[in-house]
Amino acid sequence: MKEAEIHTSKGVMKVKFFEEDAPGTVANFIKLSEEGFYNGLRFHRVIPNFVIQGGCPDGTGAGGPGYSIKCELDKNNQYHDRGVLSMAHAGRDTGGSQFFICHNRENTKHLDRHHTCFGKVYEGLEVIDEIRQGDEIEKIEIIEK
Questions:
Q1: How far, in Å, CA of 74 to CA of 104, rounded?
Q2: Range of the domain at 20
Q3: Domain containing 127 — which CATH number?
Q4: Cβ contacts of residue 33 below 8 Å, gap of 6+?
Q5: Comparing C-alpha atoms, which of 23, 12, 16 is closest to residue 2?
Protein backbone atom coordinates (compact mmCIF):
# COMPACT_ATOMS: atom_id res chain seq x y z
CA MET A 1 0.00 0.00 0.00
CA LYS A 2 1.31 3.42 -0.91
CA GLU A 3 0.74 6.84 0.61
CA ALA A 4 1.87 10.31 -0.36
CA GLU A 5 3.38 13.29 1.40
CA ILE A 6 2.58 16.56 -0.34
CA HIS A 7 5.31 18.98 0.73
CA THR A 8 4.26 22.62 0.35
CA SER A 9 5.59 25.99 1.36
CA LYS A 10 3.01 25.91 4.20
CA GLY A 11 3.64 22.39 5.52
CA VAL A 12 3.15 18.71 4.71
CA MET A 13 -0.12 16.94 3.96
CA LYS A 14 -0.07 13.15 4.36
CA VAL A 15 -2.44 11.26 2.07
CA LYS A 16 -3.91 7.77 2.03
CA PHE A 17 -4.97 6.67 -1.46
CA PHE A 18 -8.28 5.06 -2.43
CA GLU A 19 -6.48 2.36 -4.45
CA GLU A 20 -9.47 -0.01 -4.60
CA ASP A 21 -11.90 2.69 -5.67
CA ALA A 22 -9.79 4.63 -8.18
CA PRO A 23 -6.84 2.42 -9.20
CA GLY A 24 -6.11 4.16 -12.51
CA THR A 25 -6.22 7.64 -11.03
CA VAL A 26 -4.01 6.63 -8.11
CA ALA A 27 -1.51 4.95 -10.45
CA ASN A 28 -1.38 8.07 -12.64
CA PHE A 29 -0.82 10.38 -9.65
CA ILE A 30 1.91 8.10 -8.28
CA LYS A 31 3.63 7.91 -11.68
CA LEU A 32 3.63 11.69 -12.12
CA SER A 33 4.81 12.20 -8.53
CA GLU A 34 7.67 9.73 -8.89
CA GLU A 35 8.73 11.42 -12.14
CA GLY A 36 8.90 14.77 -10.31
CA PHE A 37 6.13 16.27 -12.45
CA TYR A 38 4.60 18.19 -9.52
CA ASN A 39 7.87 19.50 -8.05
CA GLY A 40 7.85 23.29 -8.06
CA LEU A 41 4.32 23.67 -9.45
CA ARG A 42 1.97 26.07 -7.70
CA PHE A 43 -1.54 25.96 -6.37
CA HIS A 44 -3.02 28.02 -9.20
CA ARG A 45 -6.62 28.02 -7.94
CA VAL A 46 -7.57 28.58 -4.32
CA ILE A 47 -11.20 29.21 -3.41
CA PRO A 48 -11.74 29.63 0.35
CA ASN A 49 -14.17 27.14 1.88
CA PHE A 50 -14.16 25.17 -1.38
CA VAL A 51 -10.88 23.79 -2.79
CA ILE A 52 -7.16 24.27 -3.36
CA GLN A 53 -6.09 23.15 -6.84
CA GLY A 54 -2.68 22.38 -8.30
CA GLY A 55 -0.92 20.22 -10.86
CA CYS A 56 -1.02 22.55 -13.86
CA PRO A 57 2.45 22.79 -15.46
CA ASP A 58 1.75 26.22 -16.99
CA GLY A 59 0.04 27.64 -13.89
CA THR A 60 -3.14 28.70 -15.72
CA GLY A 61 -5.42 25.76 -15.08
CA ALA A 62 -5.35 24.78 -18.76
CA GLY A 63 -2.22 22.59 -18.76
CA GLY A 64 -1.65 18.91 -18.16
CA PRO A 65 0.66 15.99 -18.79
CA GLY A 66 -0.18 15.66 -22.50
CA TYR A 67 -2.76 12.89 -22.11
CA SER A 68 -6.12 12.28 -20.44
CA ILE A 69 -7.30 9.60 -18.03
CA LYS A 70 -10.75 8.13 -17.50
CA CYS A 71 -12.94 9.12 -14.57
CA GLU A 72 -13.54 6.41 -11.95
CA LEU A 73 -16.85 7.32 -10.34
CA ASP A 74 -18.70 4.07 -9.61
CA LYS A 75 -17.00 2.53 -6.59
CA ASN A 76 -16.89 3.48 -2.90
CA ASN A 77 -15.32 6.64 -1.45
CA GLN A 78 -16.61 8.86 -4.25
CA TYR A 79 -17.75 11.54 -1.82
CA HIS A 80 -16.07 14.91 -1.48
CA ASP A 81 -15.32 15.82 2.12
CA ARG A 82 -12.68 17.80 3.99
CA GLY A 83 -9.24 16.64 2.91
CA VAL A 84 -10.36 14.57 -0.07
CA LEU A 85 -8.06 14.56 -3.13
CA SER A 86 -9.98 14.62 -6.36
CA MET A 87 -9.09 14.81 -10.05
CA ALA A 88 -9.82 18.10 -11.77
CA HIS A 89 -10.99 17.97 -15.38
CA ALA A 90 -12.61 19.96 -18.16
CA GLY A 91 -15.33 17.34 -18.68
CA ARG A 92 -15.72 13.61 -18.17
CA ASP A 93 -12.58 11.58 -18.94
CA THR A 94 -10.37 14.66 -19.49
CA GLY A 95 -8.32 14.61 -16.27
CA GLY A 96 -4.55 14.28 -16.34
CA SER A 97 -2.41 15.96 -13.70
CA GLN A 98 -4.53 18.61 -12.04
CA PHE A 99 -6.00 17.72 -8.66
CA PHE A 100 -7.84 19.52 -5.92
CA ILE A 101 -8.18 19.08 -2.18
CA CYS A 102 -11.50 19.92 -0.54
CA HIS A 103 -11.95 22.35 2.34
CA ASN A 104 -15.26 20.87 3.50
CA ARG A 105 -18.23 18.68 2.61
CA GLU A 106 -20.89 21.38 2.57
CA ASN A 107 -19.51 23.24 -0.46
CA THR A 108 -18.18 20.25 -2.42
CA LYS A 109 -20.92 17.60 -2.24
CA HIS A 110 -22.22 18.60 -5.70
CA LEU A 111 -18.93 17.23 -7.11
CA ASP A 112 -19.72 13.66 -5.95
CA ARG A 113 -19.60 11.16 -8.82
CA HIS A 114 -18.54 13.91 -11.24
CA HIS A 115 -14.87 14.09 -10.22
CA THR A 116 -12.80 11.05 -9.19
CA CYS A 117 -11.93 11.01 -5.49
CA PHE A 118 -8.63 9.16 -5.17
CA GLY A 119 -7.32 9.84 -1.68
CA LYS A 120 -7.68 11.78 1.54
CA VAL A 121 -5.41 13.87 3.74
CA TYR A 122 -5.19 12.16 7.14
CA GLU A 123 -2.48 14.36 8.67
CA GLY A 124 -1.78 18.03 7.99
CA LEU A 125 -5.40 19.04 7.38
CA GLU A 126 -4.58 22.50 8.75
CA VAL A 127 -2.23 23.04 5.77
CA ILE A 128 -5.26 23.06 3.44
CA ASP A 129 -6.51 26.20 5.18
CA GLU A 130 -3.09 27.89 5.01
CA ILE A 131 -2.54 27.43 1.26
CA ARG A 132 -2.95 30.58 -0.83
CA GLN A 133 -2.97 30.99 -4.59
CA GLY A 134 0.62 30.82 -5.83
CA ASP A 135 1.94 28.69 -2.96
CA GLU A 136 4.35 26.02 -4.14
CA ILE A 137 4.13 22.25 -4.22
CA GLU A 138 7.75 21.65 -3.31
CA LYS A 139 7.54 17.91 -3.98
CA ILE A 140 5.26 14.92 -3.63
CA GLU A 141 6.87 11.88 -2.05
CA ILE A 142 5.36 8.43 -2.50
CA ILE A 143 5.86 6.19 0.53
CA GLU A 144 5.45 2.42 0.68
CA LYS A 145 3.52 1.40 3.81
A1: 22
A2: 2-144
A3: 2.40.100.10
A4: 4, 140, 141, 142
A5: 16
